[in-house]
Amino acid sequence: KTAQLLRDDTNYFQVVFTIPDKLSSLVLGNRRLLYRLLFRSAASALQRSIGEECGRQAALSMVLHTWNQRLGHHPHVHALVPGSGPSLDGTQWVPCRMTQATRTKPAKPFLVDNKELGRCFRDRYVCGVRRLINAGKLEVEDPAELIAILDDVQACDWVVYIQPPPKATSDPEDVLKYLARYMTGGPISDRRLIEVKDGRVYFWARSKDKSGQQVPVSLSTLEFVRSWTLHILPKGFTKARRYGGWSNTRQA
Fold this sequence. Notes:
The chain has helices at 2-5, 24-29, 31-54, 114-134, 143-154, 172-183, 221-229, 248-251, and strands at residues 12-18, 59-67, 73-82, 85-86, 93-94, 97-98, 109-110, 160-163, 193-197, 200-206, 214-220, 240-244. By secondary structure, it is α+β, with helices and mostly antiparallel strands. Strand 4 and strand 5 form a beta hairpin.
C-alpha cells in the first residue's frame, strides 16, 4: 500500500523519534497508552514543523520499533515522509527544500530543523504523560519520582534523526528498498543468529563504539527468550500507522 502513495517526482525522508532511556521502564509498564502517545506526539510534532517551516501539508507513514540491537527495550518510531506536497490551503504544490550548495558540497534535499522538531516532540510527549498521570491512568509506583524524571528529561534535547534520500532523485523502488528493513521485521532476524551453545544464544549486534561494526554478543537462553518477549505488542495494537495526507480518512 505504501508503494501506491509514492510519486516519481518527490524526495522521501526517514525520520526516527526516540524516547529517552530514563522513561523506558515507565513505557514498558504502560505500553498501550505510551506507545500510542509516542505515535501521536511524533506525528503532531512533524506535522507542525512541516507546516510552519515549509508551509505545506504533511504526510507520513510510521512504524513502531521497541528494541535495540541487543534486544533491550528501546521504543522509537520510524517515519517515511515526502519532502514535497500541497500547500496548507491546498492551492499549489510546494517542492522539496534544498540545502545551500557550496564549492565542495552540492545542494541536498532538506526537510526541517531536527533540533526544533525534537523539542516539539519532547514537549508533546511529556505533556501527554503528565495528563495521563493527572487522570490516574498510568501504573506508577512513585508519582513524585516520576515527576522529577519528567522534569529532568524535559530539560534535555531529545534525539530525532532525519535521514535524507539516498540520492538527490530517488524513484519509489529505490526508496522502498532503502527503507524496507526499517518498516518491516521483528526484534532480530535469522541472519543475525550465530549459534546456541552451553546455555547461551550468540548473535551479531552493532558495536557500542562509533565504528558501526557488527560484533558477537550473547545472552543466556532464558534471558534471550525474556528479552524477545518484551517486544510482543499488546493484543490488537497496530504497529504501523499513517497520518496527514496519507491517513485513512484522506485516502478514502
